[in-house]
Write a structure and sequence with these properties.
Pfam families: DUF1842 (PF08896). It comes from Pseudogulbenkiania ferrooxidans EGD-HP2. This is DUF1842 domain-containing protein. The chain is mainly β. 11% of the residues lie in helices and 55% in strands. The protein is built from two helices and eight strands, in the order H-E-E-E-E-E-E-E-E-H. It has helices at residues 2-8, 135-143, and strands at 13-20, 29-37, 42-51, 57-70, 73-82, 92-101, 112-119, 122-133. Strand 4 and strand 5 (73-82) form a beta hairpin. The longest helix has 9 residues, at 135-143. The chain is globular.
């Protein structure tokens, strides 16, 4: 049955999210810009992490992954690989994301994520981050009366 459901879905859509911990001034802010291909349950795009305080940070990485649908929610799994500087060297994974989107791609209240990224040779992990549709997508959904 699951393969029939997958075969019946078609199309490609774009979605973007802000992932952050509310009320934390200067915390990390992850922005995901994703293309979703439902027939294969594949996701690709880019992850941009910024931090305004302490040491300013901008981390940008292409990402790929997949998703699973469970009881109307989405489990999203992404990995990022920085491009090698030397063409002979292997690509190194330096970003991992696991997210639970309540209510599907709308990312309703209670949507949470965990992610980790490699910065200056050290892994930084963020847990319990809130996931929200980006302002642009939220305004488009409202303007088109899609809810």
């Amino acid at each position: 049955m699951a393969s029939q459901d997958r075969d019946q879905k078609s199309g490609l859509f774009i979605v973007s999210y802000n992932v952050f911990k509310p009320g934390i001034a200067g915390g990390y802010n992850l922005h995901l810009q994703l293309s979703v291909y439902p027939p294969a349950r594949q996701v690709s795009g880019r992850a941009i992490i910024t931090q305004a305080l302490q040491h300013p940070l901008v981390f940008e990485n292409p990402v790929q992954g997949h998703y699973e649908e469970k009881s109307g929610d989405i489990e999203l799994f992404l990995n990022g690989f920085r491009l090698p500087i030397d063409p002979g060297s292997p690509r190194v994974g330096d970003f991992h994301f696991d997210g639970h989107l309540k209510g599907g791609w709308q990312a309703e209240n209670g949507s949470r994520a965990r992610y980790a990224f490699l910065q200056a040779g050290h892994w930084i992990e963020e847990y319990g981050q809130e996931i929200q549709l980006s302002d642009e997508v939220r305004q488009t959904v409202k303007a088109l009366n899609l809810r």
